[in-house]
Amino acid sequence: MDVRSQIAMTFHLDKCIGCHTCSISCKNIWTDRKGTEYMWWNNVETKPGTGYPTRWEDQTNYNGGWEMKDGKLQLKSTSRGKLVRNIFHNPSMPTMDDYYEPWTYKYQDLFDAPEGDDQPTARPISMVTGEYIDIEAGPNWDDDLSGSPVYAENDPNMEALSADVRKQMFEIQRLAFFYLPRMCNHCVNPACVASCPSGALYKRGEDGVVLINQKRCRAWRSCVAACPYKKVYFNWSTGKSEKCILCYPRLETKQPPACHHSCVGRIRYLGNLLYDASRIEEVASVPKDQLIAAQRSLILDPNDPEVIKAAKENGVPDGVIASAQESPVYRFVKDWKMAVPLHAEFRTLPMLFYVPPLSPVMSGSSGEITSNETEDLFHDIRQSRVPIQYLAEILGTGSTAPVEYALRKQFAVRMYRRHLTVGDVDAATADRALFEADCSREEAEAIYRLTSLAKYEDRFVIPPAQREQAIEMIKDPLEHKQSTGFGFTSPPMRV
Amino acid sequence: MTAAQEQNAELYFQTNCKPCHSIGQGRILGPDLKGVLDRQKREWLVEFIVDPNSKLDSDPYAQELMAATPGGAIRMIPVQGMTPLIANSLLDYIATQSGIANSEAQPVEERISFTAEQRELGLQYFTGVENLRNGAPACASCHTTVGLGGWGGGSLGPDLTQVLSRLGGLAGLGGWLASPASLTMQPVFKEHKLTPEEIDALVAYLENESASSVAAAPSITASFFGAGVIGAIALLALFGFLWKGRYTATRIPMVEKSKR
Asked: Is the per-residue pLDDT at A85 higher than 70?
């Protein structure tokens, strides 16, 4: 057993209101530099929709992630042979248009325009070329289905649905959508790290944050193609790739990442997990429908004395183990099995887990009257506006079981709380719902508390920073003592 | 003048002067030097030998000499390391030799008439198919002639189709090849001299070329450029075919398809 600690996240999609505050706080801190205008390390997508970059989930062109080929786990986009053939032209990369060409407006024209009969306008200009452009797409162009039918209909996850179900989804009364906030998953089996010819990408030993060494990056862009979530971006100004750094300077000072901190719906949870690194390849290689269960089995119980012993032997500090025991992510993923990874079939073992969203109450129209179709307030989740099969494509590797399990539990908790607070659901109905959802009253109470009442400290359990200890494992800090003294680790740059 | 000095002067004359000048056998490229001291003052001659360029630029007599060369524009090139002392001993040597009639070897013209094998060998030397023994570059690196065919040789140096008449016949051409006198060729060939067999073969080839009715090989600039353009288009078409399945874009085709 090779026990390591990994910072992991849970996003509770049922609480996401799609306000993009997370994206903006990230943008303001990290990507408002030259060359990063088009990057959204964190973005919020409307589902159904094609996302950002367009149709990122469809790997027929982008070739992201891993695949099982000849019984071996292999990168889809590259290999030693393909690398040589494509090193100067990687054919699987999104174009700028697939992201979007970033733009601003020529506001100065509003002030400088000579007096005339027409109102002056601020025309859009490209932030890359500075030329006037016609805006045809943006990073959230299909926000709230505004791009429909073009964008929603081209959602790659719709392809698995029957024509009937698809048609139903777009009937106006049934039209429903939900939001999918996305960021780097800081995967346990990251395709980007595996693909880099320069060895510039690495996974931090102490907490599993995936980072790019900006000095070693040689702009081959293999990571851009290899990441199935398209969360590595190429900075056209510096000629280096960049990605979400999970706000590690904040983490090291016990603050949650900016996107987590600013989330108004409080949908984001962060905490560390202990996992068995010796089983990564085995777990990433299981058949598609077992991937979610296998990934859950990779995560170890931080209260198990044997795990604690193995963790200590492996140099995991006591503070990190203690923090793992408090982790809200562990509760959602392992205890309650409510959170599932996004597109686990890409086999990168993502460490960001989503609680699938319940759909709105169903309604239907007869003549001019629109009303709830179901008798009581809570309808059968199988008849949700967003079909479970569709959620399963995104969060269940195509099988409905894990998604349905999570939805049923949320549904049962609602029934139970309704019974306690309003009382229009009787105890027998609530208990039956809990029984069907494999949930006890205590568990329902705990889920309710962590979902609805969770405080800052409950949502973000950040392990103590281990940077110094981690550095000491690969470098001797005393090596430079009495040798260089005050100075620079690299020559100062004159601009 | 001692015997040793005279021997040195003779050797010096053979290597540096003889390619273009004879003593008593008539003009090669430069004038026959027999009795040169009777035609011009010794001081003037010494100055001219040491630094021919300044005289050729200003002195009317020197310009007259240049006008008399084949083509009227061949300048005597400065011999590297020439000093007034060497120039004086050379003049002494010439004066001595002027007294002896026909002491030189037979001029090239009278030696042989060329065979077809020699002409063929000359072409091979010219194009570089056959290496020049002392490592000199092949003529075609810089020169071309009508007979080369295809895109011919190089265009850095002049076209050599009519070089025979420009250099005043076989003797002039042979002399030039023995010790090329231009500023460009001299440093290249000084260390890599052509052998007499090679010179004969090249002269044979160039004599044959000069019999051609065309004055110079046609300019290939346009056809070369045209071939480049066609080749580039052909390559692009090939790449386009080979990689026609490559990824180009996602969003634009998707939107276009939905509009239809």
From this structure: yes
For residue B215, tell me if it sits in a domain: no
Residues B33-50: what's their mean pLDDT?
87
Which residues sit opposite A181 in a β-bridge?
A44
**Number of structural domains chain B divides into:** 3
Looking at beta carbons, which residues of chain B come within 8 Å of A150?
A: 254-255, 258-259
Residue B114 and residue B98 share a domain:
no
Q: Are residues B95 and B152 in the same domain?
A: no
* Whether B17 and B81 share a structural domain: yes
The Cα of B231 is separated from the nearest Cα of chain A by a number of Å equal to 22
Query: For residue B76, what is the domain's CATH number?
Result: 1.10.760.10
CB contact under 8 A, A95 and B243: no
Which range in A171-175, A250-254, B107-111, B238-242 is most confidently predicted, on average pLDDT? Answer: A250-254
Q: Is residue A97 part of a domain?
A: no
Task: Give the ipTM.
Answer: 0.81
> Could you tell me the CATH number of the domain that includes residue A201?
3.30.70.20
Please judge whether A93 and B247 are an interchain contact, meaning their C-beta atoms are less than 8 angstroms apart: yes
B254 interface with A at CB cutoff 8 Å: yes
The pTM of this model reads 0.72
Same domain, B115 and B74: no
Residues of A in contact with B243 (CB under 8 A): 91
User: Which residues on B lie below 8 Å from A58 (Cβ)?
Assistant: 250
Residue ranges making up the domain that contains A415: 1-88+140-473
Report pLDDT for A494.
61
Q: How far apart are CA A199 and CA A212, in angstroms?
A: 9
B8 plus B71 within the same structural domain: yes
Do A98 and B251 make contact, defined as CB atoms within 8 angstroms? yes
DSSP codes joined into one string, A189-226? S-HHHHH-TT--EEE-TTT--EEE-TTT--S--HHHHH
Residue A225 sits at the chain B interface (C-beta within 8 Å): no
Q: How far is CA B63 from CA A284, B53, B55, B181, in A?
A: 91, 10, 8, 18
Q: Quick one: closest CA in B to A56, which residue? A: B250
The residue among A192, A340, A334 whose CA lies nearest residue A274 is: A334
B241 touches chain A (CB under 8 A): no
Q: List the domain range (segments joined by +) for residue B232.
A: 221-259
B114 and B82 in a common domain? no
Chain B nearest-CA residue for A150: B258
A-B contacts at Cβ under 8 angstroms:
39
Percent of residues, chain A, with pLDDT higher than 70: 92
